[in-house]
Specification:
heterodimer, A: 114 residues, mainly beta, seven-stranded mixed sheet, four-stranded antiparallel sheet, 11 strands, 0% helix, globular, B: 113 residues, six-stranded mixed sheet, 12 strands
């Protein structure tokens, strides 16, 4: 299984600022995803990070709010822009390989916006 | 669209009790099914999976059988331990959706000594 490192593990941010979350995988993977878990809720997919092209966003999520980069097959970033308290959530990076149904998750970034 | 429905929690059990957490799904096609576990303050860990009808996934004493006729994937364990206290998520993925996971709402399990 892939080992996924996510940074930071937690942060407290002021409203109106932005935070960039990094996801590093110890091996090349085909698919990388970003999920959001609001307090006490399930996980919702934000977007699929595509290597060398724009991310594919799910309904309700837009690039201006959640810009994503994926410069290679082992690394991706998610930025939460112009934050408000409603953005307080756990953000999780997930990876899988095409042809392999399993997906693995990082430890998550616990974001609190004040 | 595709979806997953889980039983509401929290589920509170005494140690060594039998556990069942119900999960049903709706999908156009043949999904792969998963149970993930989230321990307090941690990310998600894959607990078990099944990729086709009648497959049984098992791990750490937990089991779940892919039932196509009832579109279910119920999680069971014969004797729970305090260390099993966590939130359990049922999920599905589809090949034609690039393996994106669709999660149920999660079920919190609390096991008392």
């Amino acid at each position: 299984s892939a080992v996924i490192s996510q940074k930071p593990s937690r942060d407290i941010c002021q409203r109106g600022t932005s935070l960039t979350i990094q996801c590093q995988v110890d091996s090349q993977v085909t698919m990388m995803f970003w999920y959001r878990q609001q307090p006490g809720q399930s996980l919702t997919l934000i977007a699929t990070a595509n290597q060398g092209s724009e991310a594919t966003y799910e309904s309700g999520f837009v690039i201006d709010k959640f810009p994503i980069s994926r410069p290679n097959l082992t690394f991706s970033t998610l930025t939460v822009s112009n934050m408000s308290p409603e953005d307080s959530s756990i953000y999780l990076c997930s990876v899988s390989d095409r042809g392999n149904t399993e997906a693995f998750f990082g430890q998550g970034t616990r974001l609190t916006v004040v | 669209g595709n979806s997953v429905t889980q039983m509401e929690g929290p589920v509170t059990l005494s140690e060594e009790a039998f556990l069942t957490i119900n999960c049903t799904y709706t999908a156009t096609g043949y999904p792969s099914l998963f149970w993930y576990v989230q321990y307090p303050g941690e990310g998600l860990q894959l607990l078990l999976k099944a990729t086709k009808a009648d497959d049984k996934g098992s791990n750490k004493g937990f089991e779940a059988t892919y039932r196509k006729e009832t579109t279910s994937f119920h999680l069971e364990k014969g004797s729970v331990q305090v260390s099993d206290s966590a939130v359990y998520f049922c999920a599905l993925s589809m090949v034609d959706s690039s393996y994106k996971l669709i999660f149920g709402s999660g079920t919190r399990l609390l096991v008392r000594p």
